[in-house]
Amino acid sequence: MSIILAVNPPYAGQLVDGTKRVEWRKKPLPTGDAYIYETKRNGGCGAVIGRVTIVGNAKIKSGQSIPISLVAWGRVEEDALTIYANGGDIYANAARYPARYKEPKPITAFSRYGDGESFARAPQSWAYGEENKA
After folding, report:
1. 7-29: b or e for each residue (b if 16 or more CB lie within 10 Å)?
2. Strand order in 110-112's β-sheet?
3. Cα–Cα distance measured from residue 96 to residue 16, given in angstroms and rounded to the nearest whole number
4. Considering its fold, how many domains does the chain have in total?
5. C-alpha to C-alpha distance for 33 and 59, rounded to whole angstroms
6. Is the peptide bond before 9 cis (omega within 30 degrees of 0)?
7. In the beta sheet, which residues pair with residue 35?
8. Positive or negative CA dihedral for 44, 46, 50, 54?
9. What is the pLDDT of residues 23-44, one digit of tens each?
10. What is the residue range of 75's domain?
């Protein structure tokens, strides 16, 4: 099953280019294909720019030191991750097999699982979905 994952720039581009191999979230992402929607924040395009495969995740418990390799692969400083976690746990979701589309695709080119309706807007964090094949 695939997901549509909303990511702010510049991290969205780093994921689909393979320079960012860890996506930080407060909850674990499901494994499988993840279509990367680059948000409009900070000058982003507001479209799906590519995809990665989420192959697993590691839970970092509150107060636990984050391994330097995960910090490097996640392209976010440890201090910023501590602020993001806000006293809670965070997850390092491993992203592999990056692919950037030649042209960004509108979110309406993707359907939600379950009802088959096209997305009218991007999910706040992520949602189950797939690319329309028509």
Report:
1. bebbbbbbbbeeebbbbbbeebb
2. 22-25, 90-105, 47-60, 32-38, 3-7, 126-131, 110-112
3. 9
4. 1
5. 20
6. no
7. 4, 51
8. positive
9. 999 999 999 999 999 999 999 9
10. 3-131
Sign of CA dihedral 109, 110, 114, 120: negative
Give me the count of residues in the chain: 134
**Total Cβ atoms within 10 A of residue 123:** 16
Q: Which pLDDT tens digit goes with each residue over 103-132?
A: 999 999 999 987 888 999 999 999 999 998
The CATH number of the domain holding residue 75 is 2.30.130.30
SS3 content of the chain, % helix, strand, coil (to 5): 20, 40, 35
Give CA–CA dist 77/126, Å, rounded. 23
Place of tokens 């990056």: 98
- Cα–Cα distances (Å) from 12 to 9, 49, 53, 132, in that order, read 5, 8, 13, 21
**pTM over cut 0.90:** yes
